[in-house]
Amino acid sequence: MDRETVERVARTAHIKLTEDELERYRSDLEEILTYFELLDEAPECDNYGVNPIEVADILRDDEPRMDIDPASLLKDMNTYEGYVRGPRLS
Amino acid sequence: MKIGLEIHVQLPTKSKMFCSCPTTDAEAPNTHVCPTCLGMPGSRPVLNRKVMEYGIMLAKMLGCKVADTTWFSRKTYFYPDMTKSVQITQYDNPVGEGGIYYLGGKKPIRITRIHIEEDPGKTKRVGDQSSLVDYNRSGIPLAEIVTEPDLSTPAEAREFLGQLIQDIRHVIDLPGDGERSIRCDCNISVGKERCEVKNVTGLKNVERALTFEVIRQTKILKAGGKIERETRRFDEERGVTISVRKKEFEADYGYIDEPDLGVYHIKELAESIKIKESPLKMTLRLADQYGIDQKMAKQLVTTSVGLAELFETVANRTDVQNAVKWVVGPVSANWKSLGDKDLQPIVDTICRFSAGGITDTECGIEIKSYMTGEDASAVMGAAADLDALIVKFLDENPGLIDDYRKNDKAANKVIGFVMKNSGGQYSSSDVVDATKKLIESRL
Amino acid sequence: MIGLDLSKLKSVNDKYGMFHAMTEKESVEGSFHFSAKDNLTSKDMETCSGSRILEGYRPAFDATAIAKMRAAGGELVGKTNMDEFGFGTFSANSGFEVPRNPFDTERACGGSSGGSACAAAVFEDHVSLGVSTGGSICCPASFCGVYGIAPTYGRVSRYGLIDYGNSLDKIGILSSKATDLRKYLGIIAGKDEKDPTSCVQPDFNPGYRKLSSVAVPKEGMEGLSKDVESAFRKSLETLESMGTEIEFVEMPSLKYAMPAYYVLATSEASTNLARYVGMRYGQQEGDLSLKFDDYFTSFRSEYFGDEAKRRILLGTFTRMVGFRDRYYAKALQVRKVVIDDYKRILATHDAVLAPTMPFTAPRFDDIANMSALDAYKADYLTIPANIAGTPHMSVPCGYGSDGMPIGMQFVADHWDEEILLSVAEDWEKVFESKKPEVTI
């Protein structure tokens, strides 16, 4: 686990690291991933699923419905004329 | 030059993809929202059945192989319009893969895949200082159709999109303004390296953006430069594309499976779904399958898909000759007066004729009388009068038969005479049919 | 233990730190009282999932489990402290208060449902809703000397649960009384159209079944402290005297469960936590003139705790292009291998049994000296059942020389909560558990 990789991962995850943090997480991740090499020797198998039990074919009908008043969802948001305020786009 | 498209089509469901919020136009921002489409912690997605059905329909339309089992994935990227910073989309095992779609009925365009996913919300710039977001669009279902780079010009790309949208509209009842809601990512390479122009809206803009890219890339190559692989966006007002980011800064979406939805075994569902054949496809198939002229096939399909289907039924029950004689003839001529009457009696009549049970004339009268609802004797009388008029003209102009042998346009003389002298009481198609029948009987 | 007196709730909490938020009512009006881990949304109380980034989040909806408890006459008295988003084994990674063990306040309650186990151990007739991703119910139940059950994945609706790992999270029950498990699991279990993964379960109507045989994996006897090993062996003798056959077996897949679990859990967690960007809920006070990338980064860097950042980094890495197959895809395969191993053993045994934790509740100063990997390794006994989605339960089974509780964990086949509930009730009759002395 090199510093460049940790930097790239942190940038992807939108987390800014100080120099100290970068080094600390680098060494933690290295230790953890070294241990995880165990996975390489684990047996492979097909037929594995997304969930530990088979969850299949759960669908709902196309019927519009609103159970919660949208205003109650917006009440704690930073809004302007009904729009949610966000940061600069570019 | 190679052009490939990633086309996003909003699917016309009543409720959103993973929640029940309505998809209709809202009167104000953020009024068609709930915890799920706002990505509130603790909320959860549940898939709308109709979205899966539409996905399968489009996969079939594009000639894709529909997956036996399909599921969803999480695509992680950060933007203010994406409430979870995760888009639920498909990565492994999308609804459909490996299709072929014929442009203008001739040129094959390979379809890489089609998958279904959720739309993000809409952002608005506030000066250059901050943004405002409306999440009413968040969670609207989309189908994404990805083509191979088989298109060779911007105009062809536009033509392809136009045809595709028409066909999609036909198959899934896309609303009339469907073109506006089409968004494309356009991949284009003039030389070796390709650029992607993201999120272009509408047919015209796709052609404009691609044309701009052709010129830009050609200029660079001519000047001995190198095209850099990058993502660009299209500025509609200025008609130019602008670099957004270079390839090395592309986000790593880190796809993983979506565990909140489980998987979908859609083999049986896909088998049970029959899609409407697109008009173009049906025309080509009819011409090919029954050996009729493409023009005739097109005339059938444009009049009505129902008429074209009747043609097929008659052709299968009797033969193509009878189908052409009767369905392209009198049935087609009286199609408008049929209303919502059952088609079976027409088929039966033609079958009886084919089996020799009734004469040519009787068959024609029966069909017309049934379709228009006019009394058979009136139809017969009118037909008899019409026949008499034609016979009289033919008797008076014996040279016409010889003329007809050389050029069948000679029949127009008869038709013109009858139309002029009958006070418009016969439809032109009836006159044409009767004239041809009587001339042919004298050949 | 003490009876629950709302007028003294605050002073009890001052001592043990089990609650992040508490009711402001003066008396319990419902027919019973309960608390819930703070990653379950509640309409009337702030819900933060142990994270400062969610400070101020007041959900507009109750989690299904909480709604069902309320509908059954329950009164929610508090939201319990936990490791941030469930990321921990000791509840020491809380963005707020760290709950303290009722048997020794210098020691941890375990995690990540530490506050729930603490409340269950401190208050009489109290039941707490916990959530387990990799052992977060059984671990604190064991450290605090109470009963804790995590049902089959999908048994209880996760609607309203603030996600850690969606393919792993399970809502369950902690209580000092074994009979409560049956009673309250019966209330919160069941299909819920708002959570597709809850919709494939068979009906929940457990009867009684005597535990006739258990399998003890040899791998589960490794690395135990002396106290834990001897308490466990003594419990095996007790079980035998109750007529349960005990067989030591081999489960070679168990050693792969831990790395596979951390890969899956952090891969999923890092996508779940991507939504926390300083917009829409929780912390939102920031400089909107920053470009969105920088704006989001500023919140995430400031308000996520150390372990949350570590797991986000780990989970982002394990699903990146070039690493995804080696880590994420392989971990999915290992999960299947572990499930198959359980199914093989459970075809001939009622349950798989091992100690819950390899040691008793550690002191906070010892925890501070543990490396991240050491802490991950401490979960090696609870992880296999969690990655497999099989129901599992910790029951108190002894006390160490330090006086701290020790627990053992039964694992049953998917949907077979019946055997666990039956065992708990039989065990309670023969094992007398100690109640912590509570003074305020």
Textual characterization of the structure:
The complex is a heterotrimer of chains A (90), B (443) and C (440). Chain A has 90 residues and is mainly α. In chain A, 40% of the residues lie in helices and 9% in strands. Chain A contains four helices and three strands; from the N terminus they run αααβαββ. Chain A has a two-stranded antiparallel ribbon with strand order 2-3. Chain A is flat. Chain B is 43% helix and 21% strand. Chain B has 15 helices and 17 strands. In chain B, the strands form four sheets. A nine-stranded mixed beta sheet of chain B has the order 3-7-8-11-1-12-13-14-15. In chain B, helix 6 crosses helix 7 (305-317) and helix 7 (305-317) packs antiparallel against helix 8. Chain C is α/β, with parallel strands linked by helices and 440 residues long. Chain C is 35% helix and 16% strand. In chain C, helix 3 runs parallel beside helix 4 (138-144), helix 7 (254-272) crosses helix 9 (306-318) and helix 7 packs across helix 10 (325-346). Chain C is globular and about 70 Å long. The mean pLDDT of chain C is 97. Classes of the chains: A mainly alpha (90), B alpha+beta (443), C alpha/beta (440). At the A-C interface, helix 1, helix 2, helix 3 and strand 3 of A face helix 7, helix 8, helix 9, helix 10 and helix 12 of C.
